[in-house]
């Protein structure tokens, strides 16, 4: 496993979609930081003064540990939407979740305008089956208002014993009245890779990047290559739509699975010596078969790494709508018995040296989903990273503006993007972007 850093989608999965590194990192200070340290620590006297005043004069006796935890979390969350403090319990939960199994509802969420916003429900989870949709705004949890709660507090309230019910109040754009949705909590077992035959095409969906993802991809290609005759197999559709991201090492491994050589991505921190490059090893699991990658406004973080690597190397055609635009790296720094902090430490760059932060991956072939009548008057788009308050600014050329349509029909027959990909692979339809030609990233990928 890559121990340096990992990718995290905005917010927390119900049971949290956090990705982690388990290495203890030393604290490094630059010369300028050392010079200013004495003044900075003197200013911390302000915190001590306020802390003591609250302890002595607040109307009720406060919890000292909770005061400090909230102060630490406030410092981190003021940096960007992805930095935060993890209590010992949340840190343990996160480690369990990256293994692909956790307790909860099965929704990935963020905080927007004081409410909990659903980024996407996870496939085959209680929230998914209860009809929760991407873009839903959660206003109440078991009758209690969400307004005024932190994201962490709201997530904690939505957790609970397996088999118990929770009622969430939801505002859905396009509907006049709020909805009350009852969801039964359950153990969320994430099978991150699913696959099926589409006659002469292998369809592979990766719903998130956890520790089982690469093993799942290996199994998917192995089974599909035996189920579909090699002479008949037209290629693969790799579906990364509404994939919130996950582990960095798994994103690199999935990219590597389709590449013979070259850079997969690089990460660049504040200091030049922290730059790291990750390269593919020889061997294409798909034996050079054509690949079309599906993305949309819910494709973020690790899924954008895969799409960017395969796009830059002209190994795959990217089809769908612009991705979420989360191009930052979070390092999980353990604090012993005190939990851990999740700190944004770097941006990542595609093989051609482009940062997608707050911009997203622009597909080679843009294709919108056809919406059913009941959704035509509702918003089915995500604002993306650029819509998050306090996000890291975009770097390099191009305007901010990530996010786009994130609707995926439940029935494959109604899936405009999937059916277009199948038609392209079969030659029923043609497009100048398929198959991709040349090697855009060849100069930077040696």
From TrEMBL:
PDZ domain sequence ranges: 91-159
Span list, region Disordered: 379-413
Pfam families: CtpB_N-like, PDZ_2, Peptidase_S41
BP GO annotations: proteolysis; signal transduction
Keywords from the UniProt entry: Hydrolase, Protease, Serine protease, Signal
UniProt signal peptide: 1-18
GO cellular component, one term: outer membrane-bounded periplasmic space
GO molecular function, one term: serine-type peptidase activity
Alphabetized InterPro entries for the sequence: ClpP/crotonase-like_dom_sf, CtpA/B_N, PDZ, PDZ_sf, Peptidase_S41A, Tail-specific_protease
Stored PROSITE patterns: PDZ
Basic and acidic residues composition-biased segments: 379-394
Domain of life, per lineage: Bacteria
Homology family: Belongs to the peptidase S41A family.
Full protein name: S41 family peptidase
């Amino acid at each position: 496993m890559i121990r340096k850093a990992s990718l995290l989608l905005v917010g927390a999965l119900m049971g949290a979609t956090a990705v982690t590194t388990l290495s203890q990192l030393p604290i490094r200070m630059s010369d300028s930081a050392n010079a200013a340290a004495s003044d900075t620590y003197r200013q911390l006297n302000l915190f001590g003064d306020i802390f003591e005043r609250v302890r002595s004069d607040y109307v009720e006796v406060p919890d000292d540990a909770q005061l400090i935890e909230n102060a630490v979390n406030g410092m981190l969350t003021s940096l960007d939407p992805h930095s935060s403090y993890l209590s010992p319990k949340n840190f343990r939960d996160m480690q369990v979740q990256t293994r692909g199994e956790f307790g909860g509802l099965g929704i990935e969420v963020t905080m927007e305008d004081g409410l909990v916003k659903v980024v996407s429900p996870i496939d085959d989870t209680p929230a998914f089956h209860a009809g929760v949709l991407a873009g839903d705004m959660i206003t109440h949890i078991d009758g209690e208002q969400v307004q005024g709660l932190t994201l962490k507090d709201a997530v904690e309230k939505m957790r609970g014993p397996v088999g118990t019910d929770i009622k969430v109040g939801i505002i859905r754009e396009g509907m006049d009245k709020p909805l009350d949705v009852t969801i039964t909590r359950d153990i969320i077992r994430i099978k991150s890779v699913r696959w099926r035959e589409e006659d002469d095409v292998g369809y592979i969906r990766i719903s998130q990047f956890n520790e089982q993802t690469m093993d799942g991809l290996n199994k998917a290609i192995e089974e599909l290559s035996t189920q579909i005759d090699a002479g008949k197999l037209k290629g693969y559709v790799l579906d990364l739509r509404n994939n919130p991201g996950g582990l960095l090492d798994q994103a690199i491994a999935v990219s590597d699975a389709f590449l013979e050589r070259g850079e997969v991505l690089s990460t660049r921190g504040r200091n030049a010596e922290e730059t790291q490059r990750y390269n593919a090893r020889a061997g294409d699991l798909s034996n050079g078969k054509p690949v079309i990658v599906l993305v949309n406004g819910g494709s973020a973080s690790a899924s954008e790494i895969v799409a960017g690597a395969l796009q830059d190397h002209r190994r795959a055609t990217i089809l769908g709508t612009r991705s979420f635009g989360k191009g930052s790296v979070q390092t999980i720094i353990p604090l012993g018995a005190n939990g851990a902090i999740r700190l944004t430490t770097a941006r990542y760059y595609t093989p051609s040296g482009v940062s997608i932060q707050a911009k997203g991956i622009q597909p080679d072939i843009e294709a919108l989903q056809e919406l059913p009548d009941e959704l035509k008057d509702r918003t089915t788009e995500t604002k993306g990273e650029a819509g998050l308050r306090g996000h890291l600014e975009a770097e390099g050329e191009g305007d901010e503006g990530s996010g786009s349509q994130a609707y995926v029909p439940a029935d494959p027959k109604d899936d405009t993007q999937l059916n277009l990909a199948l038609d392209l692979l079969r030659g029923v339809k043609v497009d100048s972007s398929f198959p991709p030609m040349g090697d855009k990233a060849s100069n930077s990928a040696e």
